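Hi all, long-time lurker, first post. I run a small reading group and we've been trying to get comfortable going from sequence to structure in the token notation. Rather than ask abstract questions, I figured I'd post a concrete chain and ask someone more experienced to write out its structure so we can walk through it together at our next meeting. Sequence below, copied exactly:
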Amino acid sequence: MANKEDVIDLAKKIVELDILRDQIYENFAEVAGERADELLRKVQNSQKVV
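-- Answer (accepted) --
Happy to help. Here is the structure in token form:
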């Protein structure tokens, strides 16, 4: 297992990504308007999982 500092660093990166995701979604929702959730769902469903 990774050392404690590596685990904490990874946790911080996850939090940073989560905050960035929220910011990007806010921008997306502003541009896409009231159909933002529907459009996002369609794009998510069209992505291939590797």
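A couple of things your group might point at:
The two ends are 26 Å apart (CA to CA).
The mean pLDDT is 93.
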